[in-house]
Design brief:
There is one protein chain. The chain is an alpha/beta fold. The chain has ten helices and eleven strands. A five-stranded mixed beta sheet has the order 1-7-6-4-5, with helices on both faces. The chain has a four-stranded mixed beta sheet with strand order 8-11-10-9, with helices on both faces. It has a two-stranded antiparallel ribbon with strand order 2-3. Helix 3 crosses helix 4.
Protein backbone atom coordinates (compact mmCIF):
# COMPACT_ATOMS: atom_id res chain seq x y z
CA UNK A 1 0.00 0.00 0.00
CA UNK A 2 1.15 3.49 -0.85
CA UNK A 3 0.64 5.84 2.10
CA UNK A 4 2.83 8.00 4.26
CA UNK A 5 3.01 10.28 7.28
CA UNK A 6 2.13 13.90 6.48
CA UNK A 7 2.59 15.46 9.93
CA UNK A 8 3.22 14.78 13.63
CA UNK A 9 1.67 16.17 16.80
CA UNK A 10 2.57 15.64 20.46
CA UNK A 11 1.24 15.98 24.00
CA UNK A 12 3.13 15.12 27.18
CA UNK A 13 2.47 15.14 30.89
CA UNK A 14 4.52 17.34 33.18
CA UNK A 15 8.24 16.67 32.84
CA UNK A 16 9.73 15.45 36.13
CA UNK A 17 13.25 14.47 37.20
CA UNK A 18 13.55 10.75 37.89
CA UNK A 19 16.19 11.15 40.60
CA UNK A 20 14.05 13.68 42.47
CA UNK A 21 10.83 11.67 42.67
CA UNK A 22 11.87 8.00 42.42
CA UNK A 23 11.70 7.69 46.20
CA UNK A 24 7.97 8.54 46.04
CA UNK A 25 7.34 5.37 44.03
CA UNK A 26 9.83 2.76 45.25
CA UNK A 27 11.87 1.94 48.33
CA UNK A 28 14.99 1.37 46.23
CA UNK A 29 15.30 4.57 44.16
CA UNK A 30 18.92 3.77 43.33
CA UNK A 31 17.73 0.83 41.23
CA UNK A 32 15.54 3.18 39.22
CA UNK A 33 18.15 5.87 38.72
CA UNK A 34 20.64 3.25 37.52
CA UNK A 35 18.33 2.59 34.55
CA UNK A 36 19.60 5.83 33.05
CA UNK A 37 16.37 7.79 32.71
CA UNK A 38 16.85 11.51 33.38
CA UNK A 39 13.24 12.70 33.13
CA UNK A 40 9.75 11.35 32.47
CA UNK A 41 6.25 12.75 31.96
CA UNK A 42 3.46 12.56 34.54
CA UNK A 43 0.01 13.82 33.59
CA UNK A 44 -2.07 15.79 36.14
CA UNK A 45 -4.75 13.81 37.94
CA UNK A 46 -7.55 15.19 35.77
CA UNK A 47 -5.81 14.56 32.40
CA UNK A 48 -6.39 11.11 30.97
CA UNK A 49 -5.51 9.18 27.83
CA UNK A 50 -8.21 10.65 25.60
CA UNK A 51 -7.27 14.16 26.76
CA UNK A 52 -3.63 13.62 25.77
CA UNK A 53 -4.71 11.99 22.50
CA UNK A 54 -6.95 14.94 21.64
CA UNK A 55 -4.16 17.44 22.39
CA UNK A 56 -1.72 15.56 20.15
CA UNK A 57 -4.32 15.26 17.38
CA UNK A 58 -5.08 18.98 17.45
CA UNK A 59 -1.35 19.71 17.31
CA UNK A 60 -0.92 17.52 14.22
CA UNK A 61 -3.97 18.98 12.49
CA UNK A 62 -2.80 22.53 13.14
CA UNK A 63 0.69 21.81 11.81
CA UNK A 64 -0.82 20.25 8.67
CA UNK A 65 -3.37 23.02 8.11
CA UNK A 66 -6.24 20.54 8.31
CA UNK A 67 -9.42 20.26 10.37
CA UNK A 68 -11.15 17.22 11.91
CA UNK A 69 -13.67 17.38 9.07
CA UNK A 70 -10.89 16.36 6.66
CA UNK A 71 -10.48 12.93 8.31
CA UNK A 72 -11.82 9.66 6.94
CA UNK A 73 -10.72 7.42 9.81
CA UNK A 74 -9.70 8.05 13.45
CA UNK A 75 -7.48 5.38 15.01
CA UNK A 76 -6.51 5.31 18.69
CA UNK A 77 -3.75 2.97 19.87
CA UNK A 78 -3.49 2.63 23.65
CA UNK A 79 -1.21 0.74 26.01
CA UNK A 80 -2.72 1.25 29.46
CA UNK A 81 -5.98 0.88 31.38
CA UNK A 82 -8.87 2.65 29.67
CA UNK A 83 -10.73 5.34 31.53
CA UNK A 84 -13.85 3.15 31.69
CA UNK A 85 -14.78 -0.49 30.93
CA UNK A 86 -17.23 -1.12 28.09
CA UNK A 87 -16.21 2.16 26.47
CA UNK A 88 -14.68 2.90 23.09
CA UNK A 89 -12.04 5.57 23.60
CA UNK A 90 -11.49 5.95 19.84
CA UNK A 91 -15.10 7.12 19.58
CA UNK A 92 -14.49 9.40 22.56
CA UNK A 93 -11.49 10.90 20.77
CA UNK A 94 -13.60 11.58 17.67
CA UNK A 95 -16.22 13.24 19.90
CA UNK A 96 -13.58 15.45 21.55
CA UNK A 97 -12.44 16.49 18.07
CA UNK A 98 -16.01 17.52 17.26
CA UNK A 99 -16.56 15.05 14.43
CA UNK A 100 -20.25 14.14 14.10
CA UNK A 101 -19.73 10.98 12.01
CA UNK A 102 -16.55 9.12 11.06
CA UNK A 103 -14.98 5.67 11.05
CA UNK A 104 -13.09 4.89 14.26
CA UNK A 105 -10.78 2.07 15.28
CA UNK A 106 -9.48 1.17 18.74
CA UNK A 107 -6.25 -0.82 19.13
CA UNK A 108 -4.88 -2.20 22.39
CA UNK A 109 -1.90 -4.53 22.02
CA UNK A 110 0.05 -2.82 24.77
CA UNK A 111 3.24 -1.07 23.66
CA UNK A 112 2.99 -2.73 20.24
CA UNK A 113 -0.21 -1.03 19.11
CA UNK A 114 1.48 2.24 18.16
CA UNK A 115 3.61 0.31 15.63
CA UNK A 116 1.58 -2.73 14.58
CA UNK A 117 -1.40 -0.41 14.13
CA UNK A 118 0.25 1.05 11.04
CA UNK A 119 -0.02 -2.39 9.47
CA UNK A 120 -3.70 -2.48 10.42
CA UNK A 121 -4.18 0.87 8.70
CA UNK A 122 -2.45 -0.54 5.61
CA UNK A 123 -5.16 -3.20 5.56
CA UNK A 124 -7.86 -0.56 5.76
CA UNK A 125 -6.32 1.27 2.83
CA UNK A 126 -6.29 -2.01 0.89
CA UNK A 127 -9.98 -2.80 1.41
CA UNK A 128 -11.31 0.78 1.22
CA UNK A 129 -10.30 2.44 -2.07
CA UNK A 130 -11.99 5.69 -1.00
CA UNK A 131 -10.01 5.99 2.23
CA UNK A 132 -7.60 8.93 2.05
CA UNK A 133 -6.74 10.78 5.30
CA UNK A 134 -6.28 8.87 8.54
CA UNK A 135 -5.57 10.25 12.00
CA UNK A 136 -3.49 7.74 13.97
CA UNK A 137 -2.87 8.52 17.64
CA UNK A 138 -0.79 6.44 20.06
CA UNK A 139 -1.15 7.25 23.76
CA UNK A 140 0.03 6.06 27.16
CA UNK A 141 -1.41 7.34 30.43
CA UNK A 142 -0.41 5.26 33.46
CA UNK A 143 -3.20 4.41 35.89
CA UNK A 144 -1.25 4.76 39.12
CA UNK A 145 -3.99 2.98 41.06
CA UNK A 146 -3.38 -0.17 39.01
CA UNK A 147 0.35 0.04 38.33
CA UNK A 148 3.43 1.56 39.88
CA UNK A 149 5.06 3.39 36.98
CA UNK A 150 8.53 2.67 38.38
CA UNK A 151 8.02 -0.96 39.34
CA UNK A 152 6.30 -2.65 36.39
CA UNK A 153 9.56 -3.71 34.77
CA UNK A 154 13.00 -2.22 34.20
CA UNK A 155 11.61 1.03 32.84
CA UNK A 156 10.12 4.30 34.06
CA UNK A 157 6.61 4.48 32.61
CA UNK A 158 5.56 7.85 31.30
CA UNK A 159 2.47 9.72 30.05
CA UNK A 160 2.39 11.03 26.50
CA UNK A 161 0.70 10.90 23.12
CA UNK A 162 1.80 11.22 19.52
CA UNK A 163 -0.49 11.80 16.55
CA UNK A 164 0.37 11.25 12.91
CA UNK A 165 -1.68 12.22 9.90
CA UNK A 166 -1.52 9.54 7.21
CA UNK A 167 -2.47 10.08 3.59
CA UNK A 168 -2.86 7.73 0.65
CA UNK A 169 -0.26 8.43 -2.04
CA UNK A 170 1.89 10.69 0.14
CA UNK A 171 5.47 10.40 -1.13
CA UNK A 172 7.29 11.03 2.16
CA UNK A 173 7.65 8.88 5.28
CA UNK A 174 6.10 5.93 3.51
CA UNK A 175 5.00 2.73 5.23
CA UNK A 176 6.78 -0.28 3.76
CA UNK A 177 5.82 -3.28 5.90
CA UNK A 178 4.75 -4.50 9.32
CA UNK A 179 5.74 -7.83 10.89
CA UNK A 180 4.93 -9.34 14.28
CA UNK A 181 4.80 -12.62 16.15
CA UNK A 182 3.78 -13.75 19.62
CA UNK A 183 5.12 -16.39 22.03
CA UNK A 184 1.79 -17.18 23.77
CA UNK A 185 3.30 -19.14 26.66
CA UNK A 186 4.56 -15.84 28.06
CA UNK A 187 1.25 -13.96 27.88
CA UNK A 188 0.87 -13.52 31.66
CA UNK A 189 4.08 -11.54 32.04
CA UNK A 190 3.39 -7.98 33.30
CA UNK A 191 -0.37 -8.38 33.46
CA UNK A 192 -2.29 -6.33 36.04
CA UNK A 193 -4.09 -8.74 38.35
CA UNK A 194 -6.85 -6.43 39.58
CA UNK A 195 -9.46 -4.41 37.75
CA UNK A 196 -10.66 -7.00 35.24
CA UNK A 197 -13.59 -9.42 35.35
CA UNK A 198 -11.59 -12.15 37.17
CA UNK A 199 -10.70 -9.89 40.08
CA UNK A 200 -12.55 -6.57 39.78
CA UNK A 201 -11.29 -5.27 43.13
CA UNK A 202 -7.96 -5.73 44.91
CA UNK A 203 -7.70 -6.81 48.55
CA UNK A 204 -8.28 -3.97 50.99
CA UNK A 205 -4.62 -3.91 51.98
CA UNK A 206 -3.35 -3.82 48.39
CA UNK A 207 -1.72 -0.77 46.80
CA UNK A 208 0.34 -0.42 43.65
CA UNK A 209 3.05 1.30 45.68
CA UNK A 210 3.75 -1.86 47.69
CA UNK A 211 2.66 -4.55 45.21
CA UNK A 212 5.38 -6.93 43.95
CA UNK A 213 7.41 -5.78 40.98
CA UNK A 214 6.18 -7.03 37.63
CA UNK A 215 9.56 -8.59 36.92
CA UNK A 216 8.97 -11.09 39.73
CA UNK A 217 6.52 -13.04 37.58
CA UNK A 218 9.26 -13.47 34.99
CA UNK A 219 11.69 -14.72 37.62
CA UNK A 220 9.12 -17.18 38.99
CA UNK A 221 8.32 -18.48 35.51
CA UNK A 222 11.96 -19.52 35.09
CA UNK A 223 12.31 -20.80 38.65
CA UNK A 224 14.80 -18.03 39.43
CA UNK A 225 17.39 -20.09 37.57
CA UNK A 226 20.15 -17.69 36.42
CA UNK A 227 20.95 -19.79 33.36
CA UNK A 228 17.32 -19.93 32.20
CA UNK A 229 16.89 -16.21 32.84
CA UNK A 230 20.06 -15.41 30.90
CA UNK A 231 18.87 -17.58 28.01
CA UNK A 232 15.51 -15.77 28.07
CA UNK A 233 17.22 -12.37 27.87
CA UNK A 234 19.17 -13.59 24.85
CA UNK A 235 15.92 -14.83 23.29
CA UNK A 236 14.41 -11.38 23.79
CA UNK A 237 17.24 -9.79 21.85
CA UNK A 238 17.43 -12.43 19.13
CA UNK A 239 13.70 -12.20 18.43
CA UNK A 240 13.92 -8.45 17.87
CA UNK A 241 16.40 -9.20 15.11
CA UNK A 242 14.13 -11.91 13.74
CA UNK A 243 11.08 -9.66 13.48
CA UNK A 244 13.12 -6.88 11.86
CA UNK A 245 14.35 -9.40 9.30
CA UNK A 246 10.76 -10.50 8.63
CA UNK A 247 9.72 -6.90 8.04
CA UNK A 248 12.73 -6.37 5.76
CA UNK A 249 11.86 -9.44 3.72
CA UNK A 250 8.29 -8.21 3.32
CA UNK A 251 9.50 -4.76 2.33
CA UNK A 252 12.14 -6.00 -0.10
CA UNK A 253 15.03 -4.43 1.80
CA UNK A 254 17.92 -5.61 3.99
CA UNK A 255 18.65 -5.01 7.65
CA UNK A 256 21.98 -3.53 6.54
CA UNK A 257 20.01 -0.78 4.75
CA UNK A 258 18.64 0.62 8.03
CA UNK A 259 19.69 4.16 8.87
CA UNK A 260 18.20 4.02 12.37
CA UNK A 261 16.55 1.51 14.69
CA UNK A 262 13.87 3.01 16.95
CA UNK A 263 13.10 0.70 19.86
CA UNK A 264 10.87 1.10 22.91
CA UNK A 265 12.12 3.79 25.31
CA UNK A 266 14.04 1.31 27.44
CA UNK A 267 16.76 1.89 30.04
CA UNK A 268 20.20 2.86 28.81
CA UNK A 269 21.79 -0.54 29.47
CA UNK A 270 19.00 -2.24 27.57
CA UNK A 271 19.34 0.22 24.70
CA UNK A 272 23.03 -0.64 24.46
CA UNK A 273 22.22 -4.36 24.54
CA UNK A 274 19.71 -4.10 21.71
CA UNK A 275 22.14 -2.02 19.66
CA UNK A 276 24.87 -4.62 20.18
CA UNK A 277 22.50 -7.47 19.32
CA UNK A 278 21.50 -5.77 16.08
CA UNK A 279 25.05 -4.75 15.22
CA UNK A 280 24.34 -1.00 15.15
CA UNK A 281 25.89 1.88 17.07
CA UNK A 282 23.73 2.95 20.01
CA UNK A 283 23.83 6.46 18.50
CA UNK A 284 21.73 5.06 15.65
CA UNK A 285 18.95 4.17 18.09
CA UNK A 286 16.58 6.33 20.13
CA UNK A 287 18.59 5.87 23.35
CA UNK A 288 19.11 9.61 23.90
CA UNK A 289 15.40 10.36 23.51
CA UNK A 290 14.44 7.42 25.73
CA UNK A 291 16.40 8.93 28.62
CA UNK A 292 14.38 12.17 28.55
CA UNK A 293 10.90 10.86 27.72
CA UNK A 294 10.65 7.64 29.73
CA UNK A 295 8.69 4.66 28.45
CA UNK A 296 5.49 6.05 26.90
CA UNK A 297 4.13 2.67 25.88
CA UNK A 298 2.53 2.76 22.44
CA UNK A 299 3.73 6.33 21.86
CA UNK A 300 7.48 5.61 22.06
CA UNK A 301 8.48 4.86 18.50
CA UNK A 302 6.42 7.42 16.59
CA UNK A 303 7.43 10.15 19.04
CA UNK A 304 11.09 9.30 18.50
CA UNK A 305 10.62 9.11 14.74
CA UNK A 306 9.13 12.60 14.62
CA UNK A 307 11.79 14.05 16.90
CA UNK A 308 14.69 12.46 15.00
CA UNK A 309 13.29 14.00 11.81
CA UNK A 310 12.83 17.37 13.52
CA UNK A 311 16.44 17.30 14.72
CA UNK A 312 17.73 16.61 11.22
CA UNK A 313 18.96 13.14 12.15
CA UNK A 314 16.98 11.47 9.38
CA UNK A 315 16.86 12.58 5.77
CA UNK A 316 14.91 11.70 2.64
CA UNK A 317 15.51 8.13 1.56
CA UNK A 318 16.59 6.83 4.99
CA UNK A 319 15.12 3.49 6.05
CA UNK A 320 13.93 3.27 9.68
CA UNK A 321 12.79 0.29 11.75
CA UNK A 322 10.22 0.93 14.49
CA UNK A 323 10.46 -2.16 16.68
CA UNK A 324 10.03 -3.55 20.16
CA UNK A 325 8.62 -6.09 22.59
CA UNK A 326 5.18 -5.87 24.14
CA UNK A 327 2.71 -7.78 26.28
CA UNK A 328 1.74 -11.02 24.70
CA UNK A 329 4.74 -11.52 24.55
CA UNK A 330 4.80 -9.87 21.14
CA UNK A 331 7.75 -8.89 18.95
CA UNK A 332 6.99 -6.38 16.23
CA UNK A 333 8.46 -4.09 13.57
CA UNK A 334 7.25 -1.54 11.04
CA UNK A 335 9.55 -0.13 8.35
CA UNK A 336 9.29 3.50 7.26
CA UNK A 337 11.08 5.06 4.28
CA UNK A 338 11.78 8.75 4.95
Amino acid sequence: MNFGIVEFGYAFGETMEVARVAGDFVTDPERVTRLGYKTFHRAPGDVWAVDLAEQAAQDALKRAGLTPADLDLVVLATSEHPEYPHWDSSAALARELGIPRVQTLLLNEGCASGVTGLGVVAGQYAVQPGLSRVLFVAVNRVSEFHRNRMNVNNAVHSDGAVAVLLERGHSGLQWLSTAQFTVPDLCDFFRTDYGGSVAPLPPLSWTSLTAPAGIQRVQQHFGRDPRRLQAFVQDLLDRVGEVIDEACEQGGVRRADLARVIYINDGQESMQEIADALGVAVERTNAELAAVHGHMGAADQLTSLGEHIGRGELVEGDLVALCGISIGMRWYCTLIRI
